[in-house]
């Protein structure tokens, strides 16, 4: 209980102010400021995503293997995301030494993930959420305008759409820390995609999450 309280206070100190959670987190928000992310004390959804080689990836089974740092990013086309992926790479050894595994999820296809991993020289695992299951069930999904979608395409990016939806969807960038029971020990989500959690703050949260 003490550890959970510490992490809750810590999360409130470093997180952006978010809207009150909606009852249906799977509903796609019309603005990044209106998303309702899963919070500390809640559990990871039991969903199947895809590894960078295209094979099915069972999220809950993976999280059950060891404590997990889970990163949501918009795509390999986003320079702010690529900068964060590199920053996480820089602290991977410290997180691994603590006993963590690192996972990064985006709507990119497996093929795009392979390119990102190679270009950024990443040693941790990138996961494809091109069907937007994780993005929606974590409460991070929001619609983007056609103008913004055109800008993404102009820099070689590609966004995803839910079946039957006429608008493209992106995740609000976020970082979660899970225990092996799949419970969220720490959460940071910021609707301003230009602002990401600092590596030193992530390391502090990771250490707190392991304290009994």
Automatic annotation (TrEMBL):
EC number(s) reported in the record: 1.11.1.24
* Superkingdom of the source species: Bacteria
List the PANTHER family: SLL1159 PROTEIN (PTHR42801:SF7), THIOREDOXIN-DEPENDENT PEROXIDE REDUCTASE (PTHR42801)
Which named protein is this?
thioredoxin-dependent peroxiredoxin
- Gene3D superfamilies recorded for this chain? Glutaredoxin
What keywords are annotated for this sequence in UniProt? Antioxidant, Disulfide bond, Oxidoreductase, Peroxidase, Redox-active center, Signal
Where the record annotates domain Thioredoxin, the positions are 38-211
Q: Name one Pfam family in it.
A: AhpC-TSA
Q: SUPFAM superfamilies, per this entry?
A: Thioredoxin-like
């Amino acid at each position: 209980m003490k550890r959970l309280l510490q992490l809750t206070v810590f999360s409130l100190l470093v997180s952006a102010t978010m809207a009150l959670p909606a009852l249906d987190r799977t509903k796609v928000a019309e603005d990044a400021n209106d998303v309702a992310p899963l919070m500390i004390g809640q559990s990871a959804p039991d969903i199947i995503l895809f590894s960078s080689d295209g094979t099915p990836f069972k999220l809950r089974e993976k999280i059950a293997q060891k404590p997990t740092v889970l990163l949501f990013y918009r795509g390999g086309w986003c320079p702010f995301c690529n900068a964060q992926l590199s920053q996480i790479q820089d602290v991977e050894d410290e997180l691994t030494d603590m006993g963590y595994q690192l996972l990064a999820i985006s709507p990119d296809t497996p093929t795009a993930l392979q390119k990102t991993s190679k270009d950024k020289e990443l040693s941790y695992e990138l996961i494809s959420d091109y069907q937007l299951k994780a993005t929606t069930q974590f409460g991070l999904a929001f619609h983007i305008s056609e103008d913004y979608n055109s800008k993404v395409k102009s820099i070689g990016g590609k966004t995803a759409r839910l079946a039957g939806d006429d608008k493209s969807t992106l995740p609000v960038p976020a970082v979660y820390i899970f225990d092996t029971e799949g419970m969220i020990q720490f959460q940071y989500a910021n609707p301003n995609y230009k602002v990401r959690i600092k590596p030193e703050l992530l390391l502090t949260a990771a250490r707190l999450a392991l304290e009994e």
